[in-house]
Amino acid sequence: MTKRSSLTRRGTSARAAARARRHLRVRKKVRGTPERPRLVVTRSLKHIVAQLVDDTKGITLASASTLDVSIRGEEGKKTEKSHLTGKLLAERAKAAGITAVVFDRGGYRYHGRVAALADGAREGGLEF
């Protein structure tokens, strides 16, 4: 019998538990404020979701996803769609009056789709 982490529950994999531990380690240092919200990335096998969160109030200020109608119909690879998602989030953030954010990679490596989303957000005008 293997030793089970406190983060693993019945039905969750060791890989998901390791990501949860990494995310908690990142979240200890990264905090979103109304002036500089936290850009949270959530990734699945098919889609990617990004949200701007104000941790003081616990609310989402803006969000974008590959499930949005404007991106879902686009042709291209998942990395390209992630880049478009970052641009869309930057547009919505500008409309909400947000120019600077802190990046929360969510325990994922800063590589591939996560990096493409960050590059798209920077290209759209967000600073982090």
TrEMBL record:
Comp. bias regions, Low complexity: 8-17
Assembly and interaction partners: Part of the 50S ribosomal subunit; part of the 5S rRNA/L5/L18/L25 subcomplex. Contacts the 5S and 23S rRNAs.
HAMAP family with a match to the protein in the record: Ribosomal_uL18_B
The protein's role, per its UniProt record: This is one of the proteins that bind and probably mediate the attachment of the 5S RNA into the large ribosomal subunit, where it forms part of the central protuberance.
Biological process, per Gene Ontology: translation
Alphabetized UniProt keyword annotations: Ribonucleoprotein, Ribosomal protein, RNA-binding, rRNA-binding
Region (Disordered): 1-22
Family matches, as NCBIfam families: L18_bact
Family, as annotated: Belongs to the universal ribosomal protein uL18 family.
The keyword RNA-binding appears for this protein: yes
Entry keyword annotation includes rRNA-binding: yes
Domain of life, source organism: Bacteria
Listed name of the protein: Large ribosomal subunit protein uL18
Species this protein is from: Thermobifida halotolerans
GO cellular component, one term: cytosolic large ribosomal subunit
Gene: rplR
CDD domains with a match to the protein in the record: Ribosomal_L18_L5e
GO molecular function terms noted in the UniProt entry: 5S rRNA binding; structural constituent of ribosome
